[in-house]
Specification:
Length: 241
């Protein structure tokens, strides 16, 4: 049984095509800008059977074109890798494309098997510097980069996503360092910049948690363009989402 936060039948935000997206519960990170803090508590969410999800997805197949599929997201799907494996197997039986939106931090045999049944990965690189990564997420980034190494060895399709947060992840020197580090990976198809926003602040307050970035404003268009130009030195395709 998967612990599901919610589902969206026609989702376009994280993809150039319409996707069916399953948002899961639980996360090992506690990012200071988390826009869906209500997905972090492990006891929340609804236990949902794999076949129930498959049937929901099959119902909307007629509304999609060739480039469509199912994305599993929020906040760390690999936390439930054991239960995602049968779901992705069933989706492939139905010729449905599978995508995993992940921070790449969890690593075990279940995750390794899940990789085999995943067509494309949206991999979040919160920060290339270990100390800054820990400031942002509470965790080291070494497991994330090792996960990327594994995806490279398997020849998997990867889109890198980087949340651009003023004062925390918009430093020019670290964007440059990240570009230099990541340019060696053949598996990376594109780099996506996700400008920080405060739309999820109310969820922190609803949980009686102090929002860490009350003083931080979203990045300006100039800051976003500067980051894009830095990363374009290393990637042919850099998108701002």
């Amino acid at each position: 049984m998967l612990r599901v936060h919610s589902v969206e039948s026609f989702w376009t935000q994280d993809w150039p095509w319409i996707r069916f997206v399953i948002f899961l519960q639980w996360c090992v990170f506690k990012c200071i800008y988390c826009e869906n803090a209500d997905t972090i508590p492990t006891e929340w969410g609804k236990e949902t059977d794999v076949e129930e999800l498959v049937e929901q997805i099959k119902k909307v197949i007629p509304y999609f074109g060739k480039e469509w599929g199912c994305t599993v997201s929020w906040w760390e799907p690999t936390f439930q890798a054991k239960w995602l494996i049968p779901l992705f197997k069933r989706l492939h039986e139905e010729w449905i494309n599978t995508c995993l939106d992940t921070n790449g931090w969890i690593w075990n045999d279940d995750v390794k098997e899940l990789v085999e049944h995943t067509d494309i990965f949206l991999l979040d690189i919160k920060h290339i510097n270990p100390k800054w990564h820990k400031k942002i997420t509470g965790q080291d980034n070494a497991p994330v980069l090792k996960f990327l190494d594994y995806l490279e060895s398997k020849g998997k399709r990867v889109w890198i996503r980087h949340v651009l947060v003023p004062w925390y992840s918009d430093q020019a020197e670290y964007l440059d360092e990240m570009g230099k580090y990541l340019q060696k990976y053949n598996c990376i198809e594109r780099m996506e910049i996700l400008p920080y926003h405060r739309l999820g602040e109310y969820k922190w307050k609803a949980l009686w948690w102090k929002y860490p970035l009350e003083w931080v404003e979203p990045p300006t268009s100039e800051t976003i363009e500067k980051a894009k130009k830095i990363l374009e030195k290393y990637f042919d395709k850099v998108m701002v989402r």
